[in-house]
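Structural prep section.
Before we set up the soaks we want a predicted structure of the protein with nicotinamide-adenine-dinucleotide in place, mainly to decide which crystallisation condition to try first. Input record follows.
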Amino acid sequence: MEKVVVSLGRKSYPIYINWDLFYLLGEEISSCEKVAVITNPEVKMLYGEKVKEAFKKTDIEVIFFEVPEGEEQKSLKSANRLYSQLAKNNFLRYHPIITLGGGVIGDLGGFVASTYMRGVPFIQVPTTLLAQVDSSVGGKVAVNHPRGKNLIGTFYQPKFVLISLLTLKSLPYFYFKTGIAEVIKYGFLAGEDFLSFLEKNLEKVIKCDREVILKVVKECCEIKARITEEDELDLSGKRAILNYGHTIGHALETISEYKELQHGEAISLGMVVESWISHKLGYISKDVVERQISLLSRVGLPTSLPSLSVDKVLSQITLDKKAKVDKPIFALLKGVGNPSIQEVPQKIIIESLKEIIKV
Ligand code: NAD
Ligand code: GLY
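Run finished without errors. Recording the tokens verbatim:
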């Protein structure tokens, strides 16, 4: 078993990673009569029994609370329904909440855990690659609001994160790809060693080779843990480097109205555009742009579009909550392993967007 610690003083916590770690739930959780497991019907069907099995030797009662699947469930309405169900089942301040699922369940269940009775113990059991390498680590929990994604949220660190990599075997490739886009992002943020490892072992990552995926998930958790330690509340700009590829990516996702482009696909295109911006500002060589395009293509992620409304992307970027109107702010690369937050002139953004239009 691998263990990564997120060191945040009294809020420090371990991330346990191995092929099958469900049993650890029953060993790590004690002194309570019951636990709430927030999940969705599909994930419960796949892994609910494993969670129950983990508590078999204990006197702890396991109560499942199911939320239908989908991003639209990350809402105050769903949170409210969960508060009612928890209260109806007499859940008190010391009864833990376990979130079993992808980023939607982790964000929603974590938000409920952070607010129900002013905060109850919370354990993340992420079951998608994106949740394992990103959303379950770092304590950002939130629900969406009609005016914006993740608009209502808190910073609430879990007691521990339990990653069983076997869950990735049932994950459709469509969702797995989104996680790989984030893994590739970490490669460019972290440095040459991890990036070269990914270049050599990408096919094994895609096949979910046990040894390789263990190393990759551990490395990503280490990177996110160190960034979280430096800037837990996203104030100094250090945590904002995780947005590499996301400013353009979110804009593309929004203008495609979340239909034409899946999240991972939008982030892939966003990373390509933002690497072009980094290149055009003289920070990185064209070789780095091409290395990134090559990795993303090998995964089956898009790196170009047949057409694109540059104007629509530009106006969407200026609506982004992190942007300034005249000179939007981007997380860019000043080299492999050297990310930096920079203002970018519109002219460079336009030229870089045009680079991904390939008829
Ligand atoms: P998701 O939670 O919607 O899961 C994707 C799909 O996979 C769902 O249909 C789910 O039922 C299914 N699924 C989950 N685990 C499975 C498994 N092991 N086998 C088969 N199917 C499985 O999507 P996601 O990509 O995990 O998360 C996206 C969410 O994460 C977004 O809401 C995003 O805002 C959030 N996010 C949060 C942070 C953060 O720091 N808190 C970071 C990045 C993303
Ligand atoms: N996913 C961005 C962050 O955790 O800060």
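Observations: The chain is about 45% helix and 15% strand.
Flagged for discussion at group meeting.
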